[in-house]
Amino acid sequence: MTSTELQATIARMGTAARAASSLMAAASTSAKNHALTALARLLRESAAPLAEANRKDIAAAEAAGLAAPMVDRLRLTEKVIATVAEGCEQIAAMPDPVGEITGVKRRPSGISVGQMRVPLGVFGMIYESRPNVTIEAASLAIKSGNACILRGGSEAIHSNLALWKLVQAALTEAGLPADAVQLVQTTDRAAVGYLIASPESVDVIIPRGGKGLIERISREARVPVIKHLDGNCHVYVDAEVDLELALKVTDNAKTQKYSPCNAAESLLVHEAVAAKFLPKIGAVFAAKGVEVRGDATVLALLKDVPQAKLAEATEQDWSEEYLAPIISAKVVKSVDEAIAHINRYGSHHTDAILTTNHPNAMRFLREVDSASVMVNASTRFADGFEYGLGAEIGISTDKFHARGPVGLEGLTSMKWIVLGQGEVRT
Amino acid sequence: MTSTELQATIARMGTAARAASSLMAAASTSAKNHALTALARLLRESAAPLAEANRKDIAAAEAAGLAAPMVDRLRLTEKVIATVAEGCEQIAAMPDPVGEITGVKRRPSGISVGQMRVPLGVFGMIYESRPNVTIEAASLAIKSGNACILRGGSEAIHSNLALWKLVQAALTEAGLPADAVQLVQTTDRAAVGYLIASPESVDVIIPRGGKGLIERISREARVPVIKHLDGNCHVYVDAEVDLELALKVTDNAKTQKYSPCNAAESLLVHEAVAAKFLPKIGAVFAAKGVEVRGDATVLALLKDVPQAKLAEATEQDWSEEYLAPIISAKVVKSVDEAIAHINRYGSHHTDAILTTNHPNAMRFLREVDSASVMVNASTRFADGFEYGLGAEIGISTDKFHARGPVGLEGLTSMKWIVLGQGEVRT
Questions:
Q1: C-alpha angle B196-B198-B201 in degrees, rounded to nearest 5
Q2: Which of A343-352, A360-369, B38-47, B205-214 has the lowest mean pLDDT?
Q3: In this model, does residue A325 exceed pLDDT 90?
Q4: N or C: which end of chain A has fewer CB within 10 A?
């Protein structure tokens, strides 16, 4: 395809998505739920063709010498298919966000003013590797009454095409427009460039993938972007704290899984408990092979921990998202210093205070400028399912529109409605 | 100032605003209200120096041959000063939006998850002519716990500087950081370019002014923008309608004032009532000198109205924001055609249906994709004061974050809070 043809293709898809979005915005809850339950059924019935398509992607990935963890993320196992099918049914069971009317108040002029929740319109989803995102994005689009244009990774193209055909069939079965969920069928990277520069047909772009992808999209997009770049999450252990709780939560936040964006990457400890707490958590980390990059006080307190992997933290370490068995650690003099450090070096994703002191808990909640702020809980809870959103299309570290895990409501906006009886402005 | 110096100045202001925004986010409601009531008092006490500064701007504008309406918009009359002083007191009397906690729910894991309203951080306000915007923006920034950087029109620079000095004094009197409200003191237009490209220090830009200014900012901004470009507002007169009500509301929407963005620019009439309604509203428009640009049916129905000013509507007329005694008019076959026309040609600002038919009212409310959608009320009500927001910093026709009139809440966002007792993820 020439670049002119590709641009025309993306433009045609945009026009079709815009038309489908009007029908989706007006679609009944029962039609949307019908499509979602049909999709769950079709996924379960299609194990064989999905496996066949997935085998092509796996073979190509292995032939291209992709690293094993990358190949694993491509796999559409029976378990993955069962999980996404169940996800569709869970979204069908959730309340329809569209049409909710809130806060209607009578004004002195006589008019009643309130707000109605409506779909955003068309979103573009740009993602890498994991083909299950195709179904997650499609199902959230359907329930929230949006149309979407999906652009998956080229390495998953056969799997994505097979999944998308099921979405088309489910939409058609429910009497909804098939163009409500479209898939970019070329692996040409220029398609992304055209998609993110089409404000006339795309209302928002949601990228999910590596930092390089997200930086490129943020830089070049001419439409709003819901994104997070980094998850440099902090755990701050306050002066007054239940040490058992602090050990358990810090351990979980860092070591339960190393790769998620809500895993802790930096530990701050108040000087009043540093001598008690740090050797204990240091021993836990040493047992699990977690390297500690600390300031001088941390290193001194950990020097007698058997098998501890220690290094001196550089300035860069305070900003680092390791996604690995490494944690930076610093001793601070006060909750103020902890808050200032987090607001300066953090990525506005998720940060937790562990404390028994109520004023400090409240100050941390109010003053840490992050999408999720926690008291006495593991940062690993920052997740759409754990928050009760049913599903998440992504996590936002922007302050605009949607912060943190973005579910169905993040794919909608509130318009004003005015109900009158012939009132005029004087 | 060289462009390097100017860039450094804007960067310094940004750093100072960022620092001030942390203090403002944590400021007490009483300190913020103290600053607002002090500002109201200082405005009332400063009639003489404000008039003196304003005279310089007026004289320069007249010497430069500015049109009389432009010069009028510059005037800081006693009435304007009294109004903005009263506005500060009204904002002081409003509830503090910051710190509101909503929707806290216990999750199966044991954590409680909810949301807390917090300031956006730093906003940049770019505006033209009317110096009272300086006080409106400053007072909304103070109450919402944000810092702001103001960039008024060069023609109002002396007035803006005089007003801003009062804001500085009020902040200082209340023990709040003076840098919470800064004014760009040079009239060099390059300052705008640096300001809108500073995501590290500015969270959102709010432009208020002509279409040229707003288009330039939308194109060049590297931070989110809250804006509206056009107000092509529609009144649709449905088949089943109270004709008296329709006449009164249509008249008000078009003729109560011609220049506001919420004035009606286009009239759609169902064919079932066209022959009854159009000659009547045509006579009203003729009496007030309003030109009607109609389709063939409209022109035929208005041809016998004495003194009617008629023209055939071109395709361009359906998209036009006249801000003048001109209205486009079209006869439609159904509410569907009306909705489709509005969604195609409108500017997503404010649109009204006049009807006695409940299903049509509900369909219009749901399906018209605009920031404000009205039933049986004049589009002129689309306004922060009329909606009960107390004040507005601007009107947004974007779908993201804030739609329609933007008041204190539009200058905040919701972050997630998690309250635990040591829960960990399993």
A1: 120
A2: B205-214
A3: yes
A4: C
| Token couple for B174 | 């209340």
> Chain B residue with minimal CA distance to A108?
B386
Domains and CATH numbers, chain B: 3-226+403-419 (3.40.605.10), 233-386 (3.40.309.10)
Is ipTM beyond 0.90? Answer: yes
Over the stretch A97-139, which tens digit does the pLDDT of each residue have? 999 999 999 999 999 999 999 999 999 999 987 899 999 999 9
CA of B340 to nearest chain A CA: how many angstroms apart? 9
Please tell me which residue of chain A has the smallest CA distance to B99.
A366
Total residues belonging to chain B: 426
Count CB atoms within 10 A of the CB of residue A56: 14
Q: DSSP assignment of A14-71, as one string? A: HHHHHHHHHHHHH--HHHHHHHHHHHHHHHHHTHHHHHHHHHHHHHHHHHTT--HHHH
How does residue A228 score in pLDDT terms, banded at 50, 70 and 90?
A: confident
Contact B140, B94 (CB under 8 A): no
Percent helix, strand and coil across chain B, each to the nearest 5: 50, 20, 30
- CB-CB under 8 Å, B421 with A376: yes
* Token code pair at residue A302: 């950990």
Single-letter residue type at B180: A
* pLDDT given at position A349: 96
Helix/strand/coil for B12: helix
Chain B residues with CB inside 8 Å of A372's CB?
Answer: 415-418
Closest Cα in chain B to A352:
B418
Helices (H), A291-395: 296-302, 335-345, 358-367
User: Per-residue pLDDT averaged across B122-129, rounded?
Assistant: 92
Q: Is the CB of A424 less than 8 angstroms away from the CB of B245?
A: no
| Amino acid letter, A349 | H
User: Tokens at residue B222, please?
Assistant: 């590297």
- Which residues does B413 contact at the CB level (< 8 Å), separation at least 6? A399, A400, A401, A403, B117, B118, B120, B401
Environment class of B314 (CB within 10 Å of its CB; exposed 0-12, middle 13-18, buried 19+):
exposed
What is the DSSP code (8-state) at residue A316? G
Average pLDDT of chain A is 95
Mean pLDDT of A339-365: 97
Residue A227's closest CA among A14, A351, A403, A387?
A: A403
| Gap from A230 CA to chain B (nearest CA, Å) | 15
Contact list, B374 vs chain A (CB under 8 Å):
111, 417-420
**Rounded-to-integer distance, Cα A365 and Cα B204, Å:** 23
User: What residues contact B45, with CB distance under 8 A and at least 6 apart?
Assistant: none
B415 to A378: CB separation less than 8 angstroms, yes or no: no
**Measuring CA to CA, how many Å separate B343 from each of A117, B339, B340, B373?**
17, 6, 5, 12
Q: Which of B383, B380, B382 is nearest to B392 (CA)?
A: B383
Give whole-number Cα distances, B254 to A36, B264, B267, B297, in Å.
Answer: 45, 5, 9, 20
pLDDT at A189: 87
The DSSP bridge pattern shows strands A412-423 and B372-377 to be: parallel
> Which residues are bridge partners to B316 per DSSP?
none
Predicted confidence (pLDDT) at residue B129 exceeds the cutoff of 80: no
- Of A363, A388, A417, which has the smallest distance from its Cβ to B113's Cβ? A388
The alpha helices in B185-305, defined as continuous H runs, are: 190-195, 211-220, 243-255, 271-288, 296-302
How many CB atoms are located within 10 Å of the residue A308 CB?
Answer: 19
Amino acid identity for residue B218 in this structure: S
